Amino acid sequence: MNHQERQEHHKKEREHEVAHDKHKQEETDIKERKGLKFPRHFWLIGLGVVLIFVIVLMWIFFFPFGPRAG
């Protein structure tokens, strides 16, 4: 590797790092703007689990054709 090749290689690496930092910065900006500490899919999964749990409980306790139907 001669001197110029080494410089080119180093320049490419630096550009890659800068792009990576910029991407990370954009991600944190988006999170800060929304004011969420968790990623959005975390909330969606949580909501889904809660909804399913509530529906199952209501099914068991309130629906006449549920498992408890006498």
Give me the secondary-structure topology.
Blueprint lengths: L2 H32 L5 H23 L8
- Kindly give the count of domains: 1
H/E series = HH
Average pLDDT, rounded to a whole number, is: 77
Q: How many DSSP helices?
A: 2
Strand runs, count: 0
**In this structure, how is the largest beta sheet organized?**
none
Please give the share of residues in helix. Answer: over 70%
| Separation of the first and last Cα atoms | 83 Å
Structural summary, described in words:
The chain has 70 residues and is an all-alpha fold. It has one domain (3-62). The chain has two helices and no strands. The longest helix is centred in the first third of the chain and has 32 residues, at 3-34. The N and C termini lie far apart (83 Å).
